[in-house]
Each structure stands twice: as structure tokens, then as C-alpha cells.
Amino acid sequence: MEILTSVVGKVVDYTVAPIGRQVSYLIFYKGNFKMLADHVKDLQAARERVFHSVEEERGNGKEIERDVENWLEKVDEVIETANQLQNDPGRNNVKCSAWGFPNLILRHQLSRKAAKISNNVVQVQGKGTFDRVGYLPALDGVASSSLTRGSENYETRESLKEDIVKALLDLNSHNIGVYGLGGVGKTTLVDEVAQVAKQGKYFDKVVKTEVTKNPDFKRIQGEIADSLGLRFDEETIFGRADRLRQRMKMEKSILVAFPKLDTLKLSSLLNFNKIWDSNYDSMHNLTSLIVDNCGGLTYLFSSTVVGSFKNLKHFEISNCAMMEEIIAKEGNGALEEVHFLKLEKIIVKDMDNLKTIWHHQFETVKMLQLNNCDKIVVVFPSSMQKTYNKLEMLEVTNCALVEEIFELSFKESSSVEDTTHLKEVTITGLPKLKKIWSGDPQGILSFQNLSIVKVKSCEGLEYLLPLSIATRCSHLKELLIKQCINMKKIVAEEKESSVNAAPIFEFNQLSTLSLHNLLGLEGFFAKKHTLACPSLKEIDVLWCPKLTLYRTLSTRSSNIRDDELSVSTQQPLFIVEEV
């Protein structure tokens, strides 16, 4: 009995309900058309409201969101369909048939259409709520003014423009440079190329800004942001830079034009494995390059791009964990001897895997700072001998494996001794350092311009200066040695000299001498010598237990002449004449 009841119920559901719905179309004919007219009226009001918002946004220079435009088109389509049904001539024939009875078939068809369209109208109106109607488009910041030119110049310019556009479309080209003498129209040419790129839709975004010698970073950020349709909430330069970087990552391809770029800083580009392509020739104006935290880079320059950096004066690199060398050769060929022409300053710090610092290409460098590079063993290999003659300031700090600063080669004899320009040396925190110079550079290199020498926390260092350097330090003004616990002498003789005369160390300009925590220091030089420091004003000696600072020389001593000082096995640092 229960099974029979269930079957009867389902039969009712599948027969009676549809029949009732079809009958309702006949009964509620007028009601369905009235409901359709009401819903259309509501939809028209909603369309008008959205349209007012659209006009307001357009008046503010905004573009209309695509979904809003699609909705308005759909509204027009649905209302048009409803109007066609309401004005259908067949509606005049539903009252009666040819025999005086209502035309039930036509009445059913029209009523059913009215109910269906009415439902569509309600659905479309329900989708007419938007969080935002319009948006600010990226500004077209690449338009350039037209200039009147001669036909020859115009043809040349058009040819250049075509070449640059071709380079832009080359997937292997990441950077394209345009450079030349001032006033020849480089900036205008870049403007025109950018306009072509934008019109041709070669890139998702085209951005142009000018980077001058003294850059206004907020202006530059603002110009790039305007081209990308970005509005900053951040006030600081660094905050705006971070926001700008996030925005630029949203684009698949972007053309950024810097007509007068002279300073470039690359930071936190963790996925970069190469900065410039091998045929890059566009860094003509660049004077300063800073690269930080670019973990994918294995080198900074390739041998083929060095010549492009004709005006580079300073570069700084730090926190690039994968980098093993600064300049790398490309292919199987020998490293090309193309030098930086104006490079003066190099700063390298916090480089965990860097094994080589100095290259032949650095011959013009005047200052080198090296800090926290734990794979470096020798700062200047013997193969680079005589390539650092113009170096004036050297600072090497906290490099755990450095054993030598200057590795010298004595295989090639030369009748000419090159004079270096090195004036200031600072060496700190090199526990493995055995020698600053691997040998006495006499006859090879002269370091007679040294004026400031500071050495601290070099536990393995047994002496500071080779004999030939110490005897020619007439310009030395400041000497500071601290926490070198194994240092026994300040000056040492690498090989036994055939000359028996006592060396004379004339430190005529030395004004400051500081010796701290030198537990093994016994004296200045192991053999008989003369030390002259006529300009000395400040002596600071602390915790040097084995050092005899001075001894008084009596003028009444008959066995000592004025021009010769008697020394014991451990000659004191200074011998003071008794007055």
C-alpha cells in the first residue's frame, strides 16, 4: 500500500504540476504582461542610475569597467526583447478566434513568453550592482612634439627609429641604448620610439621618465606611477619604491625609457640571473651602479659589455649569494682586455661565494672596499701585478680566509720599479692573514706614498712592513696596530741582505702612533737600525708587555757617536738623547 501511495504521488508531481503551470499561462495572461511591464520599468530605472554613474566617471577622465559596459549592453538587449513582445501584433488576436471563442493557443504562447522574459529581466537587474564603475587609465606620457626637420635628417631619424623598434621586438634584447652628443635629439627620438611602441601595442605598458645627474626620486616615481595608473598612499621614497615594484610585477611586458640615466640601483631582484645581454651597448651615461641582494646573479659584468660602461665611476655590489666573480668571460674564448675607462671606486661586501675581486679591467680604480667576503684568499693575485698602481685607498675587513693582500711574482725581472699611488690602507678582522705583501716588492713596486696604515685583529700577522717599504715611508703620517697578538716586529727582512749597514727608517711626517694589545711585539726591527720620527705628536701604547718603548742615551757616553746608535738584541722603540 505504501509503495502504491508513493507511485501515485510521483505521478501527480510529474503530470498535475506541469498541467497546472500550462493552465496558469491561460489564466494569468494579463497578469504576466503587467508583471513584465513593471519589471522592465524597474530595469530601466536601474539602467539610468548606472548610466549616470558612467557619465560622471567619464567626466573625471576615467575609463569604464568592462563588466559595467557588458551589463548595459545586456540591459538594452533584454528591454528590446520585452518591448518587441509587448508590441507584438498577435496580442490583438487573443480575445477570440474566427468562431467567437478565445484563441487559447496564441494566448498561451504569448503569456508564456511574457513570464520567461520577465524572469530574464529580474535576473539582469540583479547583476546591476557594482563596487566600482570606472578606473583611471594609465597616462599617455610618451607623446612628443613634432619638429620641422630637413629631409636628410628626417630619413636618418626614421631609419634609427626603425632599428630601435626592431631591437625592442627582439626577444633576446633586454636593454637598448640611445646615446650621442648633447642637443642632437636623443630624448625626442626616445619619445617617438615609445609612441610607436604604444601605438603598436608591443608592450603591455610604456613608461618614460628622465633621470638627471641629480635625480628627484619622488618625481621619477610619480612619472612612472602615472603611466601605470598607480596612486601612492606611501609618503617615503622607499615605501613608494616598494609599491611601484609590486605594480610593475603585474605586467607581463613593460617598456621603461630612461633617456638620461646616470645612476642605477638594483635591489632584491632574487630571480635575476643576468642584468644585461651580451651585446648590450647602452650604458654610455651611467656613472654609478649599485647591486644588492640579487641572489640569482653568478657574475656582474660579462667580458663583452665592459666597454659599454664608458663613464662608469663607481659600482657597489653586496648580498649576491651565488656570485663567484665580478667579470666573467663569455664562451670559450679568453677574457677580452676591454677596460673601464673612468672607474674609480669599488665597494664589495657580504658576498658569500665571491672568489675573485680584482681584474685587469680595474686599472683606473682609486678606491677598493672589501668587507665580509669569506671565500677570498688573495686580494691581488700575482697575475694582476702592476694593475693596481693607481689605487689610493684600500680597505679589507672581516674576510675569514684572506692570507695575503698583495701576492708578488719575482719571476719576471724589470729594470723599472713602478710607483704605486696607494696612500691609505685599512685591514681589520683577517684571522688567517700571514703577510700583507707575499715578499719584499723592492725592484718591482714602490709603496712610498703610504700615509695612513691601520691594522687590527689580524691574529696570524707576524710583521707589518717589508724592509724596502719601511725605509721609504717618508710620507707616513699615521700608524695604528691593534689586537695582532702574534706580531713580533713591525718591520721584517724577507731575505738576508748583503749590505751590513744599519737601515734608517725616516718617518719624517709620522704624527700619530698607536700600538694596542700586541702581546708578542718585541720591537720595531730585529737588527740594528735608526728610527727617526721628528714630527711625532701622539704616542698611544697599551698592553705591549714585551716592548721596550724607549731608552735614554747619555751624551757623556764616550763609546757612542752622534751618528750611530748602539743597539742590543732587543733595541727599544725609541732612543732618547739625554739633555
UniProtKB/TrEMBL annotation:
Domain NB-ARC: start-end pairs: 158-256
Protein name: Uncharacterized protein
Disease resistance protein At4g27190-like leucine-rich repeats domain boundaries: 360-484
Signal sequence interval, chain numbering: none
GO MF term list: ADP binding
Organism: Trifolium subterraneum (Subterranean clover)
Top-level taxon of origin: Eukaryota
Listed transmembrane segments: none
Pfam families assigned to the protein according to its UniProt record, in alphabetical order: LRR_RPS2, NB-ARC
Alphabetized UniProt keyword annotations: Plant defense
Family, as annotated: Belongs to the disease resistance NB-LRR family.
